[in-house]
Input
Amino acid sequence: MQRYQRLRMQLRLKRVEAGLHQKTLGTLLGGATQALVSWWESGRYMAEDRYLGRINQFLSLDPLAAAFM
Output
């Protein structure tokens, strides 16, 4: 769970640094809604596996390294 908290905080920070709105990021990640991105960032909802690879790419994370965060 702590690993996911770190991921969600990085997601929000990277999104803000990139100047992206949640809706825009959701579109870039494969059609996630603004609400879904908001839930990921708040920790209300964990990202599904189908989005995790894209999130890791957005964050420029190695998927194997991310598994051990």
In short: The first helix runs from residue 2 to 17. The radius of gyration is 11 Å.
